[in-house]
Amino acid sequence: MGYRRANKNLNIDLDGFLDVITNCIGVLIVITVLAMINTKYMTFVVRTPFVRKTEKQPVILECRKNRIVPVNKIEIQQKLEDYLEEIRKNSFDYDRIAHSTNSELKDVGDKYYRVDLAKLFRSNILALVPKAETQGESSQVLKEEAAEFQKVLQGIDSEKEFAFLLVRPDSFEVFRAARKLLWTHDVEIGWEPLSDGQLISFGSQGRRPTID
């Protein structure tokens, strides 16, 4: 007995599926166009740095090892003057002192820096040497109420003072974090790059810090 194989042609209607795909693509195009239009008319506020002279006094901070350290120049200078007065009172041999090394001289400075006295007596330049490689505060702790940076920030008189930051190549992250906080408190800022190993130095012929 013979069997005849039936040929069944399956007709699938894809029009509905194509309509769904077309509609989705259309919606995505509309969203993209709207996003581009909104972006075009958005306003971005970017502070453009420019240099100008100022009569304000600088509050100096150093950014190194991606931490920020206050440079208490006034306090250090006062301690240095006290030491020089001590030398004068005791009639020390200036020539001998001028040829001494730092290890033979008194440690003059604060908790962050000591004065390079050997350099001072040789060339009349006040150079500061860090007392430790890792000091100061990272960008994560600058906002904390107990942070040393907050004490410095609160002590700045923005009418008479501005912040001047000395920035090492490895410390732009903490510099940007500190700058943002200073701007938030309407404190004007100046800054200058320092190379690795370069000492912070003050001389009688040094230029006056500027605001950026």
SSE ordering: HEEHHEHEHEHEE
Strand fraction:
15-25%
Shape: elongated
How many DSSP-defined strands?
A: 7
Query: How many helical stretches?
Result: 6
How are the strands of the largest sheet arranged?
2-1-5-6
Mean residue pLDDT: 80
Estimated structural class: alpha/beta
Number of domains: 2
Poorly predicted tracts of residues = none
Strand count, sense and barrel status of the largest sheet are: 4 strands, mixed
First-last Cα distance: 102 Å
Helical residue percent band: 25-40%
Radius of gyration: 33 Å
Q: Could you state the oligomeric state of the chains shown?
A: single chain
Structural description of this entry:
The protein is α/β, with parallel strands linked by helices and 212 residues long. The protein folds into two domains: 14-44; 57-202, no CATH class. Helix content is 36%, strand content 17%. Strands 2-1-5-6 form a four-stranded mixed beta sheet, with helices on one face. It has a three-stranded antiparallel beta sheet with strand order 3-4-7, covered by helices on one side. Strand 5, helix 6 and strand 6 (189-193) form a beta-alpha-beta unit. The longest helix has 26 residues, at 15-40. It starts with 14 loop residues before the first helix and ends in a 10-residue tail after the last strand. 20% of the residues are buried.
